[in-house]
Amino acid sequence: MRAKPAIIVVDDEERVRQLIHSFLREDYDVLLAADGLEAMDCYELHAGRIAAVITDVRMPRVNGWELVAWLHRRRRQLPVIIVSGYTGEVNLESLLLRREVVGLEKPFEVKELVTTLKRMLEAPGGNTRA
Fold first, then answer.
1. Beta pairing, strands 50-56 & 80-84
2. Are 58 and 64 in contact (CB under 8 A)?
3. What CA–CA distance (Å, rounded) separates 107 from 84?
4. Closest CA to 11 of 112, 78, 82
5. Are 61 and 35 in contact (CB under 8 A)?
6. Torsion over CA: 78, 81, 86, 89 (sign)
């Protein structure tokens, strides 16, 4: 039996992490982090298994943009979905990064998040570590 792809979900709101986890857990091994620093530790522990990261932008200690930069220094093609409740913040920054990054504005439909994740992982080079 093949192992499920591992996804790190990063958000400082517990209810958001749990909601995303509940929709992804059937198809993915979901690892949860409350901020960017926890996500970095999680990535270091499971780097060979991580297929993608879903992260909020505004969080304590290490924010989403700092996390994405850190992740892409380690694995440039790692798919990342950035979610933010601040209008305009996601699209502008995503375009500036010009990497495997997609932005979704909160509130978003979880179905849209799941569809976006699947699309990113199915893209050429999208899931190189599953």
1. parallel
2. yes
3. 8
4. 82
5. yes
6. positive
Task: State how far the Cα of 51 lies from the Cα of 117, in Å rounded to an integer.
Answer: 10
CATH architecture of the domain with residue range 6-122? 3-Layer(aba) Sandwich (3.40)
Positive or negative, the Cα torsion across 89, 39, 77, 124?
negative
HSE, side-chain direction, 13 A CA sphere, residue 1:
2
Find the helix packing angle between 64-74 and 36-46, rounded to 10°.
20
> What is the pLDDT at residue 130?
40
pTM for this entry? 0.84
For residue 4, the number of C-alpha atoms closer than 13 Å in the C-beta half-sphere is 12
Read off the amino acid at residue 126: G
The structural domains of the chain, with segments of one domain joined by +, span 6-122
Q: Examine the pLDDT at 103 and tell me if it is beyond 60.
A: yes
